[in-house]
C-alpha cells in the first residue's frame, strides 16, 4: 500500500473461526466489519475483539477471508449514525454520534478526529459498535445534522465587492460591501 494512503481508513470484512478439533470438526464462523488503515491492522483488531467476545484467540483460530468493503455510492452525501464505546481517563462510556459524509469510512475518520479533539480519546481506546446510514430525515436526532437537511438550504455570501467590468482601477471612495 502506498505511504500516502496509509493513514486513510478502509472498511474490511474479516471472517474467522476456531480451528477444527475432534470435538468440534465444523466450528462456527465469526464475521466482523472493521475500520483499519490496512489488512494487517484489520486482522489484529479482529483477534482483539474476538478474544473479548468469544473464547477464540489467534493461536487457536484461523482467518477464513478478508475483504475490502467499498462504498456503493461514493459521490452522494449521506447521514451516518455511529454507536461507539470508548475508554476515557475516568471510565468506559457508550456514545451515539452523527456525521454527514460521503462514505462510512469518511464518517469513521471524522469520528476518530472528533473524539480525539473533544475527549482526547485515541484510536486504541475507541470501539466502533455500529455504523448505520440514516435513510429517513426523521431518524436524524442531532441538531447539528438536522440544520443541514432543511429544504432550500442556502449559504449567503455577505460583504462581496460587486465586479463591474468598465469600472476605473482607482477610485476616490471605498467600495460598499453592504448590498
Fold and architecture overview:
It is a single chain. Strand 4 and strand 5 (92-101) form a beta hairpin. The protein is an alpha+beta fold. Helix content is 19%, strand content 30%. The strands form 2 sheets. Strands 2-1-3 form a 3-stranded antiparallel β-sheet. Strands 5-4-6 form a 3-stranded antiparallel β-sheet, with helices on one face. The chain starts with 9 loop residues before the first strand and ends in a 33-residue tail after the last helix.
Task: Describe the secondary-structure layout.
Blueprint: E1 10-18, E2 29-36, H1 39-53, E3 61-69, E4 78-87, E5 92-101, H2 104-118, E6 126-133, H3 143-146
Antiparallel strand pairs: 1-2, 1-3, 4-5, 4-6
Strand segment tally? 6
Quaternary class: single chain
Put simply, the count of helices is 3
The end-to-end distance, rounded to whole angstroms, is 52 Å
> Mind summarizing the main beta sheet?
3 strands, antiparallel
* Mean pLDDT reading: 91
Helix and strand pattern: EEHEEEHEH
Tell me the Rg in angstroms: 24 Å
Strand portion = 25-35%
Envelope shape: elongated
Poorly predicted sequence stretches spanning 5 or more consecutive residues: 1-5
Helix coverage percent? 10-25%
Amino acid at each position: 500500500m502506498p505511504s500516502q494512503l496509509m493513514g486513510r481508513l478502509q472498511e474490511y470484512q474479516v471472517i474467522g473461526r476456531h480451528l477444527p478439533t475432534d470435538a468440534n470438526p465444523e466450528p462456527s464462523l465469526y464475521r466482523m466489519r472493521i475500520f483499519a488503515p490496512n489488512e494487517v491492522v484489520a486482522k489484529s483488531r479482529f483477534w482483539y475483539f474476538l478474544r473479548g467476545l468469544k473464547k477464540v484467540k489467534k493461536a487457536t483460530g484461523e482467518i477464513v477471508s478478508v475483504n475490502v468493503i467499498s462504498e456503493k455510492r461514493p459521490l452522494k452525501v449521506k447521514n451516518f449514525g455511529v454507536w461507539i464505546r470508548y475508554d476515557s481517563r475516568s471510565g468506559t462510556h457508550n456514545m451515539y454520534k452523527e456525521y454527514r459524509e460521503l462514505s462510512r469510512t469518511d464518517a469513521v475518520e471524522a469520528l476518530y478526529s472528533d473524539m480525539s479533539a473533544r475527549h482526547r480519546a485515541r484510536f486504541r481506546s475507541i470501539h466502533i459498535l455500529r455504523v448505520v446510514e440514516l435513510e429517513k430525515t426523521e431518524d436524524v436526532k442531532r441538531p447539528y445534522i438536522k440544520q443541514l437537511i432543511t429544504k432550500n438550504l442556502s449559504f449567503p455570501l455577505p460583504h462581496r465587492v460587486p465586479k463591474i467590468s468598465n469600472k476605473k482601477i482607482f477610485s476616490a471612495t471605498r467600495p460598499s460591501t453592504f448590498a
